Amino acid sequence: MCREVEERAAQTLQWAEDNNLSLLDIALDPLTLGRASLYRTILEKSEIGNLKSEIELAVDDLRRAGAVQFLVSALLTRAWLRSLTGPLTGPESAQSDLDEAWEIAERGSMRLFMADVLLYLGRLFRDKTALAEARRLIEDCGYHRRDGELADAEEVAKGW
């Protein structure tokens, strides 16, 4: 399934580039490619490969396009990748991406994204307090699309 998503995203990226679509249209495809590749890499326990460049390109292009709602998602994806390949804290780390995503979400009153940041924070840093706060936000907002992910994170957290 991940490979199919990668193939479709590569095709739509090619169409976007061939037809000189907007920077936003073009930036979303590397993000989709990067995410699908990240999921496949994790599931197959394979090499990271060129994931970093795809996700970096998506973050940079979304930032240039001023698409903050998509930038938060790209930062979350990059945080996950960085947690696997680089430092968890400090400059250019998973924590710095989560901090930036939180600032954007908080400034824009994007409570659903705030819940997403807390879920990532909980998982990547084994932070039960973040998971509890994510639960509160998810329930307050009726963000039930994240119920399964939250339940899974809470189940895993029992072993921390």
Model description:
The chain is mostly helical and 160 residues long. It is built from 8 helices and no strands. The chain has helices at 2-18, 23-44, 51-65, 68-85, 94-107, 111-125, 128-141, 147-157. α2 (23-44) packs antiparallel against α3 (51-65) and α5 packs antiparallel against α6 (111-125). The longest helix is centred in the first third of the chain and has 22 residues, at 23-44. The radius of gyration is 16 Å and the shape is globular. It starts with a helix and ends with a helix. The mean pLDDT is 91.
Provide a short characterization of the protein structure.
By secondary structure, this protein is mostly helical.
Specify the number of helices: 8
Largest sheet: none
- What is the distance, rounded to the nearest whole angstrom, between the alpha carbons of the first and last residues? 31 Å
Q: Give the overall shape.
A: globular
Stretches with pLDDT under 50, minimum 5 residues: none
Number of strand segments: 0
Summarize the amount of helix as a percent range.
over 70%
Radius of gyration: 16 Å
SS content category: mainly alpha
Q: Give the SSE order as H and E letters.
A: HHHHHHHH
Overall average pLDDT: 91
Tell me the fraction of residues in β-strands, as a range. Answer: under 5%
